[in-house]
Amino acid sequence: MDDYPILEMKNIQKAFPGVLANDNISLEIKRGEVHALLGENGAGKTTLMNILFGIYHPDHGEILINGKKTVIHSPQDAINDRIGMVQQHFALVPSFTVAENVILGLKNFGFIIKTKQVEQQIKELGERYSLPVHPKARVWTLSVGERQRIEILKLLYTGANILILDEPTAVLTPQETRQLFSAIRKLVQEGSSVIFISHKLDEVLEISDRISVLRNGKNAGTLNRNEVDRRTLVQRMVGRDVLLDQEKPKVESGPVKIEIKDLSVKNDKGLMAVKNLSLKIHGGEILGIAGVAGNGQKELAEAIYGLRPIETGRIQMAGEDLHHRSIKKRIQSGLSFIPQDRKSIATCPNLSVMSNIFMKNAIPGLKKSSAWNMQIKQMHEKAGELIQNFSISTPSTKTRVRYLSGGNLQKVVLARELSNNPSVIIAEHPTRGLDIGAMEFVYQALLEEKKKGSAILLLAGELYEIFRLSDRVAVIYEGQIMGYTPPDPSYTEKIGFMMAGTREDSIHEN
Amino acid sequence: MNDILSFIVATLHATVRAGTPLLFAVLGTIFTERSGIMNLGLEGIMLVGAIGGFVVSYNTSNLLLAILVAMIAGAVLGLIHAFFTVTLKINQIVSGLAITMLGSGISGLWGKDYIGVVAERFETISIPFLSDIPVIGRILFQHDLLVYLSLLAVPLMWFFIYKTRGGMTLRAVGEAPEAADARGINVFFIRYLYTIIGGSITAIGGAYLSLAYNSMWIENMTAGRGWIAIALVLFATWDPYKALLGAYLFGGITALGLRMQAVGTHISPDFLKMLPYLLTIVVLFFTSTDRLKRKVGAPASLGIPYSREDRT
Amino acid sequence: MKIKIEKRLNTPRYLSLVVPILSIFAALLIMFIILTIFFMGRMGSFQGAFSETVSAYKELIAWPFFNQYGLYSTISKMVPLAFVALGLSFAYKMKIWNIGGEGQLYMGALAATWAALFLFRGITSPLLLITLVAIFSAIAGALWALIPALMKAYAKTDEIVVTLMLNYVAIFWVDYLVYGPWRDPKGFGFPGTAAFPEPAMLPTFFDGNVHIGIFIAIAFAILLQYINLKTQWGFNSKIVGDNIKAATYSGIKVKKYTIISLVVSGSIAGLGGGVQMMGMQHRLMHGFSPGYGYTAIIVAWLAKLNPIAVIFVSFLFGGLLVGNDQLQMFYKLPISLISIFQGLVLFCLLGGEAIAAYRLKIEKAEEATANE
Prior knowledge:
The complex is a heterotrimer. Chain B is mainly α. Chain B has helices at about 1-35, 40-60, 65-85, 90-110, 135-140, 145-165, 165-175, 175-180, 185-215, 225-235, 240-265, 270-285, 290-295, and strands at about 125, 140-145. Chain B is built from 13 helices and two strands. Chain B starts with a helix and ends in a 16-residue tail after the last helix.
């Protein structure tokens, strides 16, 4: 690592309607370093990097590359300045081959594509940087880890020497993460700089040379790796000591509220995503399911709720088989679902807060309201009550939910899902994209329901969350439960093995 | 026996002629849709192409100039559609409908004083040697210039789309605009470009009606061909060769209907007229979208406006 | 000083009213320009063209809205428009693009003719006969829309082209009947059926110049508004229209809603066809609709799918259609002139709404960007 700042961002300011995403941020990247950008969701990391990559324009501030002031109007400019970005959502064309994706948009290729030559070059590049790929493979057939490699190769092919990686390990298995890290080290050895955006403390501590912490849109300090530990980082990230150990309410275990036997469910591609899975949850119990995204969690949740058909097996709620029950009936039987993508299925962006709360038409307590004569005013009043109870920050019940922040939107979903005394709640990544205040709120709300006797199935990516809320932890891998552990951080390594495919009984305790 | 043969040959010859306006419209719209823009305004574009070409042909007797003006008219409507759908990000379906209304209205107005007059027509050019082949010669090689152009366009378009860098750019913009944008491709420019080009090629299809298929202007002479073309683009799964197949299939139904009327069948002419439209419905039913789209590499972003700030 | 264009957070109420009205004026203005250019081709000079356009516009506005008999025509023309537009907006609320209003109208007229001239020939009670004919025309429209409805619900086929194709099929079907088996033997070769019997004709007022269809249309508008605002159906339709996945997630049976929506949409349009037969035409004829089904699309859009607004906008467009006829007669302009206006109005409306989503923000140089 040089002492030479290859990139400087000075006093960057960027506002969106209703939120100041970047507040006077300054950042300095040296040549040949791995620089981590750490912060919680919503701290402004992605916005800042989007500005660097030309997707957004800063309201104020300047960017200097090699000491020279540069204006970046578009990704093309960024590419010309040898800056490259691998985003969380990959920018690949599914039906194209690896090679085609790598050369897409490049100007120096003439009219007709010289396929063989390009494929050879890509193969060599991949070998050099420990990022092996098959140039002829079509992207839609590839795994997530392989696709990420293509993204990085794209940047290297055009000579990028500042690489921005946005939450790259979010979708990787532990093994793929190892591979990525060794590739990063190789890159840095050869003189590139890597900006590593993450909110995962352990990874940041492992891979980076320096760490800049962002909090609430500001830069809370840049530190050398050997000067920090977890505690200091957390303090900077959050501004206070977060209680990593919380008291979990002790609740009497009730009757079995939901039981799943030998469930098999197919995914969208027609492959079996859930394979002969069995589990049961009692009232007043939270079962947390840990696992890397894409191992059947989504399909499991959808099958229980009724959004996806079952191939074989049984789902029983309070003893009754759910098999042919419509979604409406399942809702009426007390099943609630907080899906991970609140914007895509759980809310209607252009409808009012009230409409979203009453979307399922399952909130009790409305007098004289029927299908042919709805009492709109009453509904607004009830919605107003719920807004108070759930601390939803909104100008009125008539506001369209598209204008609410992520945290408030999730509270609307909670207000709906938790207000009709559900007996079973499926919570899928319920705190994704929320700031710490909203996360705490979600945790408290779920724990409240647990106290009231609901059975909760928690599907989360962050082990922290699972440990915080669950009574038992199950690990899912390729659609099967690998094993159970108590909700104690000392079991993290064992859980890691299970997440990567080792069954509980074949893990040797050290 | 000879009667049947000559009936078949005559019908197939008519098939090519009847299919040509459809072919132009489908090819043009393949360009537009592959960039991710849905253009439902084909009926209007074909009509302005027809009247624009006719007016110029009537006043200058210059057929090539007529085609050029038709293309410009189509390009203008394409530009309007692009502005509303790409820049203003308006619902593409509604914009297309508005283009149809605008185009048919303007063609009606412009053509009001040209009803009933006759102008030049693209003469049949028999290709030496090839046109003397029995049966096939008559069917394929005794046509006008525009037919030959449309047939030539098919392999050219295919090569462009699949074998060149420009084609790759086009496909990327339609299938994954975020990917293209991240590679420095100007998604907005590409969409504008191909919507305009698509409009002008479609307009040639309309001009064919007034300059070759007939040599006069009739109000609303496209009679729904623009809409059939939209269904055909889906049927062709955005591939030029399949477009050829589809266009001639429909041309065939139309031609058959006309031939049968000429020969004097008992089938009601109104029923025969219904056939292309009914066939379109059947075709749409069997072209199930989701499964096909994924396999074929369809423009997945079709109909969805692209906005950089939506990506997060 | 900097002027910035910023996306609005909330669209104020008044804009929802102002934008449609402004679009009408903008469209009229642009059409004025287009007409003037056109007349220049005819008359050779700008002066002549300009004055010709001015007098054409006077004819367009004055007769339908300020002349007694013109007004009668306007009300008569607005009835089928209102019916189809009400039907269409019912489907559009769920983003189901029923373009088949014209065909559903024709099928309603066809069924009404069949019922009045053949099936219920002997019935003399006007109340009974009219009710039966009305029901049949509604059913015909419903069935015509059922085809695309089933295709959409079960095969995910897009409804736009299917409904449109059915328009052509319906028109040809009517042609077949009207030139063939149903042709009036006493009609002197005129492409139409025999006249409806007396009891099948709607009562009229204003000296026989306007039929009661207008009241039926208004009644339906009120009914539909009630459904939108006060029933579960209306509430759920909004959800389906905004986010289909959320609707499924909420337990709404989207397939059922899709089918019912299209079928009801078609039935109201079909009823319009029946009303038009019983109230205005009194016989089935070739080309009896000057494109009501297509104009109704614009009406529905301009009225922002609000049933009460549909009545007002239908009145406006009814008048424009009447004026259009006048222009055809006295200024030798094509009937399709109205299509230009329709296309322009739609574009002005769309453009206006897109612009209304932004606002200007004037910033002094020293001020930092304020937080909301």
